[in-house]
Each structure stands twice: as C-alpha cells, then as structure tokens.
Amino acid sequence: MTVGISECRCILVIGATAGIGRALALAIHDLPSKPDVIVGGRRKERLDELTKTSDRIKGVQVDVSANRAALQAFVKDTISAYPDLDAVIFSSGIQHMFDFKSPEKVDLDLLDSEIVTNYTSIVTLCTLFLPHFLKLSESDRPSFLIPVSSGLAFVPAPWVPNYAATKAAIHSFSISLGVQLSSTKVRVLELAPPLVESELHDHQGTTPALSKFWMPLSEFTEKAMAGLINGDTQIAIGQAAVGWEAHEKGKEEKASQSYAQLGKLFGQS
C-alpha cells in the first residue's frame, strides 16, 4: 500500500516564495489533514506575506547556495523548531542560457551557481535531513524527500544545457536514493514539471514567448498534488510525462533489480 503526503504532519517547502514552490505550499496547507507548512526561501518579504495567511504556515529564511556549515545550521534549527517535520519539497531552482559556440561569453560562475542551486544543495540537504527521517522510520512513521526535477531531465533543451544537465542529475539521484531507502519508511517522490507558468524565465527575457506554451500554474499544481497524495515515486506531468514514457519508463525497476543483485554479490541487504 502506497502512502502519500496526506499522511504528513509538517511539510517544509524550500523555494516557496514564487512559482511552483509557493503554489504547492498553499495547496498542501489546504489538505483536509491540515498539516503545518514551513515555507523556506531567501526573500523575507515574500515569506512574511505567506505566513500572514494562516497560523499553520511558518517561514524560515534559507539560501540553498550557502556553504555547508550554513546548511547544517539551517537543518539543525529547523528540526529543533519543528520536530514533527516529515516531508521536504526541494523546489529552489535557477536557469541560465549558455551558448558554447561563443565559449568566451560563457559565465562559469553562473554555471557553477546553477549546479549548486539545482543539484548539489539538494543532495547536501537530503543527506542532512536523513538522520531525522530515519529516526521517524524506526518508529514506523513515513517521511518524504521530494526533489523537483524537470521534463528537461529526460529530453534536454540545448539553449539551457547546464540547467537540463542539473535536472538529469537530480532525476538520476532521486531514483538511486529511493532504491537505497526502499527498506525504510523514507520515501523519495520525484516531481518532474513540464514548462510551467513561473518567474524562472523573467531574467532571460523569454517569458512573453514561453507564456504562449506553458502549462498554467493552477493546472500543474492540481496534477502534482494528485501524484503527491497518491505517493507516486515518479510524478511526470504534461509534456514531461511524454518524455518520461519514451525514455525513462522502467529505469526505476531496473535500478532496484541491479541494487538487489549487487547486494547479494557483496553479502549486503
């Protein structure tokens, strides 16, 4: 029997000040189970705006691109303040266009920051939250790590090559993490959006063009919540589902089989 987030008592949404993260935080708040919702992000004024809407919405400032010590302090403080925390959604993300035909114009600092924000910070935070979630597992309580990848993890967009690569990395990591944790009560639910209405593209100047094609945020949120409530481990939506069906279907099962075979080979469970 699969278990979804409607079982959760307290859910942290990192990257909740805009777009997908904000919409998911508000939708989770409205679940009949009435979980507490912690909204995390860099912009305090937007966090304050959200916390004013309900006593069950709490705000925490966090910059996922901070150093490891700062992230460790953030996780420690969050767990201390909210010991019932049993789910984290990783929705922070940045996107930049790079043209490698003009390598002298490729900003390697921007490239590095995109990798940190979209990939390594999520791996770091998953690692730091896991001891708490594994303790919940020992007491038979389910918990959830929910990375947000993208349909570009399955079919890359060459104009945002590094962004697509970071999302492919998160997709691969999510499958591996879920397989490794399959004997515990910690579940990994990967959410893969298509092109969705958001502020992500504003700094690129591409919003007017993309807005003609993107999925409305309200439609995406409804479909994403259905998958999260159902406890689906791979939640690919809209055009992302087309890419997943064509290129990724069955990989999770194959990874699980390979892990089990290697476990037998090395005498591990």
From TrEMBL:
- Pfam families xref list: adh_short
> Which Gene3D superfamilies does the record match to this protein?
NAD(P)-binding Rossmann-like Domain
**GO terms, molecular function:** oxidoreductase activity
Keywords of the record = NADP, Oxidoreductase
Keyword Transferase assigned = no
PANTHER family from the UniProt entry: 5-KETO-D-GLUCONATE 5-REDUCTASE, SHORT-CHAIN DEHYDROGENASE_OXIDOREDUCTASE
Family recorded in the similarity comment: Belongs to the short-chain dehydrogenases/reductases (SDR) family.
Please give the name of this protein. Answer: NAD(P)-binding protein
